Structure to design on (260 residues):
């Protein structure tokens, strides 16, 4: 299989034309960027509003969790048929599937802003708008960008599945290969999807390291642990250097409140 894969990749015909691997890769990247930017245009403003005002937090979390539970292929097929088989309806399905992680990341980032910092900004006379953009948004960046990374990976995978309803991209390479039992082509398509996902994730990770100060990255990891990870406490047991390790799992709920 490995030799057949290299033979398939070495064939110039597979790198040219509308069905060539570069063209399909460009299509897949185009669909991914359109879906993620569309989802960000919806999820980020909504997450900022709800996180800042505290209004509708429980409804937002419930709706986000419900949207995460939607079956991917079922939603893509339903909207494809509802839209009369147009490519736009398939892109709308990708946007819908990308909204929850962006929305949840933005909302959680604003909510995790230290209340003492917000109160200090309020005491300095900052307006609600100033507190949002100068205090809460910078503190929300780690989780916001984390939500974007999750959405990007999900869209890359879902766009491949959407080839079943006629969307182009690398999913066509997989589907066409399976139809004619060309398994080297299937493996090449799968590898291209994985490579695209890893590349985009690394690019966003690099952007996150550039945009987000190191102190905020550490604080975001600490907040993530506090929301439900296992805490470890080391306690002396009275025998010289021996210690006792005690673990406890914590749970956190979503608390609503008004910041403005």
């Amino acid at each position: 299989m490995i030799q057949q894969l290299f033979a398939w990749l070495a064939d110039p015909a597979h790198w040219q034309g509308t069905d060539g691997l570069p063209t399909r890769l460009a299509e897949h990247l185009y669909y991914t960027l359109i879906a993620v930017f569309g989802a960000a245009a919806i999820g980020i403003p909504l997450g900022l509003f709800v996180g800042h005002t505290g209004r509708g937090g429980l409804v937002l979390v419930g709706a986000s969790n419900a949207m995460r539970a939607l079956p991917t292929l079922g939603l893509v097929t339903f909207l494809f048929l509802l839209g009369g088989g147009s490519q736009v309806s398939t892109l709308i399905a990708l946007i819908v599937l990308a909204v929850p992680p962006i929305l949840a990341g933005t909302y959680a980032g604003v909510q995790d802003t230290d209340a003492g910092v917000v109160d200090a900004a309020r005491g300095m006379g900052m307006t609600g708008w100033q507190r949002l953009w100068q205090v809460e948004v910078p503190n929300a960046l780690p989780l916001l960008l984390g939500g974007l990374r999750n959405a990007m990976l999900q869209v890359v995978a879902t766009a491949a599945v959407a080839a079943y309803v006629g969307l182009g991209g690398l999913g066509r390479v997989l589907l066409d290969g399976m139809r004619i039992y060309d398994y080297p082509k299937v493996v090449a398509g799968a590898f291209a999807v994985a490579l695209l996902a890893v590349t985009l994730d690394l690019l966003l990770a690099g952007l996150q390291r550039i945009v987000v100060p190191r102190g905020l990255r550490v604080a975001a990891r600490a907040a993530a642990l506090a929301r439900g990870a296992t805490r470890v406490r080391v306690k002396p047991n009275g025998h010289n250097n021996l210690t006792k390790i005690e673990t406890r799992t914590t749970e956190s709920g979503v608390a609503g409140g008004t910041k403005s």
In short: Residues 177 and 183 are 6 Å apart (CA to CA). Residues 2-249 form a domain with the MetI-like fold fold (CATH 1.10.3720.10). Residues 229-258 have pLDDT under 50 and may be disordered. The chain has one domain: 2-249.
